[in-house]
Amino acid sequence: VQLVESGGGLVPPGGSLRLSCVASGFTFSTYTMNWYRQSPGQGRAFVASVTGSGGDTHYTDSVKGRFTISRDNAKSTVYLQMNSLKPEDTAVYYCSQLSYNAWGQGTQVTVSS
Q: Helix (H, G, I), strand (E, B), or coil: what is residue 101?
């Protein structure tokens, strides 16, 4: 099982980024996929999840209305569209599949002027 994230970077407050995570090694469409993030000095925290069909999503309260998780099962890819970014969104963002305890390498998102 392999997860590879991309799309992080430096953006000003109020900006947008789209993270991608390409999965391999398992039947992607069968499993819920997750995004987590880890800020400096803090533990890894749940951000969002999407079920295998894409029909059900969940978000941590702090990102509701700003972030959107989605997936393309034909491409074995899960996305995190992040809008109206705030400095407190600065973190390393990880894609995960918890049934396999699989995690990507992470992608850095920095929100700063």
A: coil
